Amino acid sequence: MQKRTSGIHHISAIVGHPQENIDFYAGTLGLRLVKKTVNFDDPSTYHLYFGDAEGKPGTIITFFPWAGAKQGKIGAGQVGMTTYVIPTGTLPFWERRLETFQILFKKVERFGEQYIQFADPHGLHLELVEREEGEINTWTFGGVKPEVAIKGFGGATLYSAQPQQTAKLLEAVMGLERLGAEGDLIRFRSSADIGNIIDLKQTATERGRMGAGTVHHIAFRAIDDQDQLNWQEYVSAHGYGVTPVKDRNYFNAIYFREHGEILFEIATDPPGFALDESKERMGEQLKLPEQYEQYRDQLNRRLIPIEVRELD
Question: Which of 109-113, 135-139, 203-207 has the lowest mean pLDDT?
Fold first, then answer.
């Protein structure tokens, strides 16, 4: 029996200075910092999570920020473009907002939709698209109110080293529906109302290089722990090397690198980001996994001071 993921859970990227990261995603884009923690493998740096008011799956972008990090190169083996979905009729608001913050953008059309494309301060490629689907984001910050706020992910564009192998994975293993092709892209869709569109570039580009401004991995949704174990067995049976389950506090994760060299994760929807903070106070305090709690004072001295602030 074929399994089907409902869509994107989160996307994780590498960026530069953490304050610049917060200023852009919270201050400019109006997203909520829903969790401030550390990189589990390198606790001397942050792991920052931004999403909608509740931090729901399908809205979360996460960052490993290293001040002075070497610039990466977007290419094969990576997510090339991260798409956010906004309410219908709000593209003019976002064009004005980007102009206010002197962010260059361009307009493009694909699959009958209008997009505005731009980059974050560290070179990550982003775009906005209007769609009716998806719940209104109730978060308000810095002049971005719910009627215009980013709802969550629209999807992502994948750059594969072996596009036909990646297409086979998306359809035959991940269970996405192939909608059609346009130009150099194949479009796939999942069942969720956000984070549901994957565009795959059909021609392989030059190999990407990990560093600031690149996506580290893309995560898809599992319903719960048992569903994730089923995914682990299912993906392994299709010939992919899958990691053991890793506890990420706010979800459990398994990883595999598909044949086009893109790192995929399958993450559980629960327990969510209100596990160690109330929904009202999420993102306000530095939250540490249990193994690092004893080093809190030391980490607080090493980590760069950061704050969520409204921008002029």
Answer: 203-207
Q: 162 lies in which domain range?
A: 8-302
Nearest to 32 by CA among 146, 147, 139: 139
Residue 3 lies in a domain: no
Domain assignment present for 206: yes
CB atoms within 10 A of CB 60: 27
Q: What is the DSSP string of 2-61?
A: -----SEEEEEEEES-HHHHHIIIIIIT--EEEEEEEETTEEEEEEEEEESTT--TTSEE
Q: Is 164 domain-assigned?
A: yes
Strands 214-222 and 42-51: unpaired
* Number of compact structural domains in the chain: 1
Written as six digits, the tokens of 193 are 């109302």
Q: Distance between CA atoms of 162 and 16, rounded to whole angstroms?
A: 29
Per-residue pLDDT for 188 more than 90? yes
Which tens digits make up the pLDDT trace of 40-81?
889 999 999 999 999 999 999 999 999 999 999 999 999 999
- Name the residue among 212, 159, 162, 155 with its Cα closest to residue 179: 155
Q: How far apart are CA 46 and CA 16, in angstroms?
A: 11
Interstrand relation of 152-159 and 125-130 (parallel, antiparallel or unpaired): unpaired
Can you tell me the distance from the alpha carbon of 252 to that of 247, in angstroms, rounded to the nearest whole number? Answer: 5
308 part of a folded domain: no
Contacting residues for 301 by C-beta, under 8 A, at least 6 apart = none
**CATH number of the domain that residue 247 is part of:** 3.10.180.10
C-alpha angle 54-59-62 in degrees, rounded to nearest 5: 100
Q: How far apart are CA 182 and CA 117, in angstroms?
A: 18
Q: Which two tokens stand for residue 282?
A: 């999420």
Question: Whole-model pTM?
Answer: 0.97
**Mean pLDDT of all residues in the chain?**
97
Cis (ω within 30 of 0) for the bond into 289? no
Token pair recorded at residue 253: 């994760």
